[in-house]
Design a protein that fits this description.
about 400 residues, alpha/beta, Aspartate Aminotransferase, domain 1, Aspartate Aminotransferase, domain 2, 2 domains, seven-stranded mixed β-sheet, three-stranded antiparallel β-sheet, binds pyridoxal-5'-phosphate
Length: about 400
């Protein structure tokens, strides 16, 4: 028996597999590896949240919910956004509960893009952004941001890439992989550009609670931005809930209705029990978040200082749980650095070039790892570097 000979999707075939997975899979086959490779909290989901899900299951929360998600959850999400960022969305029709930010990202791009539309992606960028633009029929236009300027969103660089086909700029703040948290001033300049050139802003704010050097500015809260912003957020990172698959997307009508239409035919709804857990997270887990953030911050300080002492400098990451140091002093490419460090010292990091060509010369290290392991990782990286001088 032979499968059909007709070509499979060329768009998907042209998209390389995730470079993060490759290292993660390799590290899992080895013993004694300290992994700084995965972008996942090392804390368990707060107990109260887990308990609420257990109770929900005993009560039979095993069915579909309405397509948009439980109304109580949408009301809490909108109240939370209003309280923390001063932005207003109507729970009934401007807020959709999704299976993680991943689904929200896909919905936003599919609802926005016509074939050939361009989406500017400031780089280094989260690995899913550019493939998702391509899957939606668009053309991703990467634009490198400057490490010397802390990877701030530079509206002038973005402006240089705008064409009549520019439909949106897609970015995350705080950023995966650089940890850069964008300032109100830079976002304001970007919003002014979006108004002038008439494009959307797709703003991934999944790390909005994990900020250390200032408060988070939500893109939608910038004057003039609300009508042209798609806000993506979720529970995976802030509440240590990656496996629950629950997030949300907020946007004005009629875009929100189009995203809802795709979602009702593809995902139907986010997992019911996870939605109940998300309600509990918003109701009671703030103290847990505060504790986790304080812990990440301690690790961030220690780790960034340690890297610096080894000559692996990086702009201070203001949010998320990533450091993105330059490894140029080692003389190695980012792929070689990551491969040899894993092989010789059993420390897994992600080569910077998987986040776009401008990530070359850097590696991404996640400090969502216990302090003693971070200390040990720094020692091993030190041994690795000194074996090369
Ligand atoms: N957006 C960013 C910037 C991420 O780093 C990740 C996960 O690493 C996601 C989205 C995916 O989030 P979710 O688990 O909510 O699908």
């Amino acid at each position: 028996m032979t499968p059909p000979q007709k070509p499979l999707s060329r768009v998907v075939e042209a998209c390389p597999p995730s470079g993060i997975r490759k290292f993660f899979d390799l590290a899992q086959t080895m013993k004694g590896v300290i992994t700084l490779g995965v972008g996942e909290p090392d804390f368990p989901t707060p107990w109260g949240v887990r308990e609420s899900a257990i109770h929900a299951l005993t009560r039979g929360a095993t069915t579909y919910t309405g397509n948009s998600g439980l109304l109580e959850l949408r009301e809490l999400i909108c109240a939370d956004l209003a309280a923390r960022h001063g932005i207003t969305y109507r729970p009934a029709d401007e807020c959709l509960v999704t299976s993680g930010v991943s689904e929200g990202l896909d919905l936003a791009l599919r609802a926005l893009i016509n074939p050939g539309d361009e989406v500017i992606v400031p780089e280094p960028s989260y690995v899913a952004y550019q493939p998702c633009v391509a899957f939606a029929g668009g053309v991703a236009v990467p634009v490198a941001m400057d490490p010397a300027e802390g990877y701030r969103l530079d509206a002038a660089r973005i402006a240089a890439a705008v064409t009549p086909r520019t439909k949106a700029v897609l970015f995350g703040s705080p950023s995966n992989p650089t940890g850069a948290a964008q300032s109100a001033e830079d976002l304001t300049a970007l919003v002014a550009l979006a108004e002038r050139e008439d494009f959307w802003l797709v703003s991934d704010e999944i790390y909005d609670r994990l900020t250390y050097t200032g408060t988070h500015t939500s893109t939608a809260a910038v004057p003039g931005a609300w009508d042209r912003t798609v806000l993506l957020n979720g529970f995976s990172k802030s509440y240590a809930m990656t496996g629950w698959r629950v997030g949300y997307v907020c946007a004005p009508e009629p875009l929100a209705a189009l995203m809802h239409r795709i979602h009702q035919y593809t995902m139907l709804c986010a997992p019911h029990v996870s939605q109940v857990a998300a309600i509990e997270a918003l109701r009671s887990a703030e103290p847990d978040v505060t504790e986790m953030v304080a812990d990440y911050d301690r690790r961030r300080r220690l780790f960034v200082k340690g890297l610096d002492e080894l000559g692996l400098t990086c702009p201070e990451p203001g949010g998320a749980f990533y450091a993105f140091p330059s490894i140029r002093s080692s003389g190695l490419s980012s792929q070689d650095f990551a491969e040899q460090l894993l092989e010789e010292q059993k420390v897994a990091v992600v080569p910077g070039d998987v986040f776009g060509p401008s990530g070359e010369g850097h590696v991404r290290c996640s400090y969502a790892t216990a302090l003693p392991l971070l200390e040990e990782a720094l020692e091993r990286i030190g041994t690795f570097l000194s074996s090369r001088t």
